[in-house]
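Record 1 of the preview.
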Amino acid sequence: MTFQEVEQRIGKQVESEWRQCSVGKGWIHKSAVVNSEVVIGEDAIIWGGTIRGGTIRGGTIEGGTIRGGTIRGGTIWGGTIRGGTIYGGTIRGGTIEGGTIWGGKIEGGTIEDGEWKNAPLFVKDSRGHGACNSKPGYLKIGCECHTFSDWKSRFPAIARKHNLTPKEKVEYEAIVDLFCRTGK
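->
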């Protein structure tokens, strides 16, 4: 990709603030930290963040820390990636520690394993916590991550632990029920 093609993708830039990766020929902005052994493919643009390992074959990275894995497309605005393979989608935070992401939109949370071919269900509750199907068979709400059946059987204890009001209990029970019926 030429510098002019970079500008077509992300807008007008100062060429002296950019360099091409010696391995892979992708473009790296001066604000990004990229270890010398990292391969930045010719279709990738690294605008910021820290990349300590992995292979970036495409996409745009504007922040975050990448310690390994393979990124073949998508946009990453932040977060930490410690492995896995990302084929597309948008990531705006969170921690990815393995698994395969084929697309969708991730705006926080933790992905520790599993494989998603489409974005998993995500709901934001009244306390501002995210509820998501964090990996196959599991529901994570805030800091609590349990199997679907554990949520059903342990809900009263979890509600007490987090001092849920009667109104919040109704809301959270509905969220748990939704994920148990529709989750993967």
